Amino acid sequence: xxxxxxxxxxxxxxxxxxxxxxxxxxxxxxxxxxxxxxxxxxxxxxxxxxxxxxxxxxxxxxxxxxxxxxxxxxxxxxxxxxxxxxxxxxxxxxxxxxxxxxxxxxxxxxxxxxxxxxxxxxxxxxxxxxxxxxxxxxxxxxxxxxxxxxxxxxxxxxxxxxxxxxxxxxxxxxxxxxxxxxxxx
Length: 185
Known about the structure:
The chain has 185 residues and is an alpha+beta fold. 54% of the residues lie in helices and 17% in strands.
């Protein structure tokens, strides 16, 4: 092939050669377009895969949290329903009075039953809230059943405990029912 006479050597190339070059350029352009399309499709599929992976991980974490909560707090309704049994046993022990020869076995049986019930509660994460007279009222753990001005006490001090409260792990199952002083003198 001869040296091009002017700066535009394509003018010197015969038509057949020019067509060959054009076909090759078109094929390269087509290949490049196809590569770009495949890269875009790959990136889109990778993005979808990453999102699906993240969704699966979030679903696993959610299911694990729900399982733990069901394990820890699933029995809350049953626990609340059993609390009156504890209250009645406690009242029965208090009503029995002092131990005598006649009632010693009865009182011992009630106390043993109450201890066993408390052990079962603890085994399942239920702990009593047992405020004492003179403790400060805590609205997160106590329910004020009444308020009365009692000399010698401070406002917000517990003056009577009507019923113990209970926690289920870190959640309030039932607040302790208390009377609170309103005395400000």
